[in-house]
Amino acid sequence: MIANLIAENILEVYEGNNWTGVSITDAIKDVNWQQAQHKTIASQNTIASLLHHLYYWNGVMMQRINGINPSIPETNGFDVGELKSESDWNDLKEKTHQSFIKLADAIKNFPEEKLYETSPTGKSTYYKNLQGMVEHAHYHLGQMVIIKKVINDS
Predict the structure, then answer these.
(1) CA distances from 48 to 2, 29, 33, 83, 107 (A)
(2) Distance between CA 75 and CA 45 in Å, rounded?
(3) What's the gap between Cα 3 and its chain centre?
(4) H helices within 38-85, ranges in order?
């Protein structure tokens, strides 16, 4: 039951219908590939680097669900690389969306009885890690919204 709720929240932060009324899909739907990589005074990150970071961390969490604790490089998933076209931007959006779907599916299949066991990090429970992913996605969604506003206002 709890795992299903976390999975639902993971999907809703990307697709919509979450309690904030804002989703990643809505925030980036009218952002083009040039805007996605535009640096602003609002953040050292771009919308594209934030989206890539979420994609990266969804993959990290998938490994942790499977009992693996990967080492995290200094780039921390912000190393998106240059987008050279709208197609590159669409590919990034699609692979990130798919990572949210895959993570939600993995969470739904995660045994409820393991939620309160210590995760492979050795620092917190699976529950805290999985719920943290929801919070993490909302945090970066907020950054995307602010960056987009700064871009549109300039």
Answers:
(1) 31, 13, 8, 8, 25
(2) 12
(3) 18
(4) 47-65
- Contact in structure between 88 and 33 (CB atoms under 8 Å): yes
Distance in angstroms (rounded) separating the CA atoms of residues 109 and 87? 33
pLDDT (tens digit, 0 to 9) for every residue of the chain, 154 residues total? 999 999 999 999 999 999 899 999 999 999 999 999 999 998 999 999 999 999 999 999 999 999 999 999 999 999 999 999 999 999 999 999 999 999 999 999 999 999 999 999 999 999 999 999 999 999 999 999 999 999 999 8
| CATH of span 2-153 | 1.20.120.450
H helix runs in the chain, sequence order: 2-15, 24-28, 33-36, 47-65, 86-108, 126-153
| Contacts of residue 76, Cβ cutoff 8 Å, sequence gap at least 6 | 53, 56
